[in-house]
Amino acid sequence: MSDRPSTPLLDQIARPSDMKGLSDAQLVQLAHELRQETISAVSTTGGHLGAGLGVVELTVALHAVFNTPRDKLIWDVSHQSYPHKILTERRDRIRTLRTKGGLSGFTKRSESPYDPFGAAHSSTSISAALGFSVARDLGGVVPEGLGEAIAVIGDGAMSAGMAFEAMNNAGHLDKRMIVILNDNEMSIAPPVGALSSYLSRLYAEEPFQELKAVAKGAASLLPEPFREGAKRAKDMLKGMAVGGTMFESLGFSYIGPIDGHDLDQLLPVLRTVKARARGPILIHVLTKKGKGYAPAETARDKGHATAKFDMVTGEQKKAPSNAPSYTGVFGDELVKLAAKDDKICAVTAAMPDGTGLSLMAERYPSRCFDVGIAEQHGVTFAAALAAGGMKPFCAMYSTFLQRGYDQVVHDVAIQRLPVRFAIDRAGLVGADGATHAGSFDIGFMSNLPGMVVMAAADEAELVHMVHTAAAHDAGPIAFRYPRGEGEGVEMPEEPQLLEIGKGRMIQTGKRVALLSFGTRLGETRKAAEALSAKGITPTIADARFAKPLDREMILKLVADHEALITIEEGAVGGFGSHVAQLLADEGVFDAGFKFRSMVLPDTFIDQASPKDMYETAAMNAPQIEAKVLEVLGVASIGEKRA
Prior knowledge:
Elements lengths: L23 H22 L4 H5 L1 H10 L6 E4 L6 H9 L34 H13 L11 E6 L6 H13 L3 E7 L10 H11 L3 H9 L1 H4 L1 H6 L4 H4 L8 H5 L3 E7 L3 H14 L3 E7 L7 H5 L27 H15 L3 E5 L9 H6 L4 E3 L4 H13 L3 E7 H4 L3 H9 L6 E5 L16 H6 L5 E4 L3 H13 L5 E4 L23 E4 L4 E6 L3 H12 L6 E4 L2 E3 L3 H10 L2 E6 L6 H11 L8 E5 L11 H7 L4 H11 L11
Parallel strand pairs: 1-2, 2-3, 3-5, 4-5, 6-7, 6-8, 8-9, 9-11, 10-11, 13-14, 13-16, 16-17
Antiparallel strand pairs: 10-15, 12-14
């Protein structure tokens, strides 16, 4: 405990109700201690630091003014929820963040009644808050009761279409609810687009110091117009509201902008809104990501996501890398292609660094597009780039591509447009848990007519697949690869163009064939080594393609073996299901052929290390070995142990 900050006031707060007797001056002190505790905790666990530091004062103010968990406080994305977790009966577990059996890095309904709605993808909070407010007015019943509905959404998340869909509906229904626009000008990447510029202008047009002076008198300004009951929130804070026309046109009363780090502004505004507001109201709060911790404030990403770090220096304790990351390999190869072909371009949705496109953006800015948190738009934009004669790579995490699936079907696949989908974070991803796992893309991409779906077994294979995708003009093509480091294989001097729909043989054996799709190939090889010690030498093949399947190779594996096992880092309905369909169509099962498919289990797997998550999924080398022994009828070691 000696290295932990002194937090005498925070030590007295186990839950938000304990804050009700604190003076405003004590709440300022509590915010200071909460910031120190957040920095200390994240230094030991790693995680999303900057977002939480930016909302410390806002978190304290919201829990001091409102009555959670009866009042529903919904954090959009919820990267910023660590201070909230500390104040809501979870401080004793805060140093288990993002670890196996520990606290989630996001809000999670099953974790606490103070998390009324789970999050991790952006732009859902206003829809959820509206749902809670309507449920309240319709007499819905939940254990904690239904009070206010408060959404806290960042300016980056506000750029997504879903946020505007929700605001439009909320304005129409005219339900009492509160949206707090946490405007820090900093989502994962600097926010892009006209909305960001509009928000910037709102507080650039008048001296911010004058706004602060007006806001300090907010308590005296607000009540009388509220008592009149006829004026909107903008009128109640005359001179303070320098904009908000766009939000008001959607039916929201607008207050702001106010300083999100000044409790003298936050507390009176929130108290008055709680006491008097009618209908939907938007409070525009200005904050600074990474606030109060110099290493985060000065970092380019404001400490968005960090490894464990030294609290004094902010230096991150990252293990030395033994192999290039898959993301880095993709980014490097794309730049090489772009240098040779001026039709190559790239699209991402607020993740240029995460998807490896930062180098492309630096070298060829006119051909690299960050569309903001707008995957639907990004996919259709890429489709039209392809229709216009360009060669677009649409680089998105598997879990985020889900948000643009209708556009993949309707705008890309039906029109057979050659969009190249670079699907990052395929499979299980570790500390971010189920919300960020790339579990479903094999299934949802492979069932689309004309879609080519590849998976890289290692970083050298990824090089070949990037170049194969660039050369493929006959329709859409996708390639998937995981988070983290490659296998450490030798990189090719010259990339190969892979023949579409052709796999490769890795080793020839007898009795059982192991057909791997993706990076489980390494574990498959380890399993084969262990089996060889038992006198069993399996055949190993790397499918490379889930669509189209290598029909010839698969049927030869069937002809030459008594059993076939497919292995993939995806949910049921993917590669193995397509293989099973082929075998059924060919009548292979009529003669009693043995077939097994190893897929992710039919459950969402909580955060842990990737190795532990694949252990839970029963997809590491020992489980592959056991599956071979089972299908061959060989008793596994320890099976009859008491």
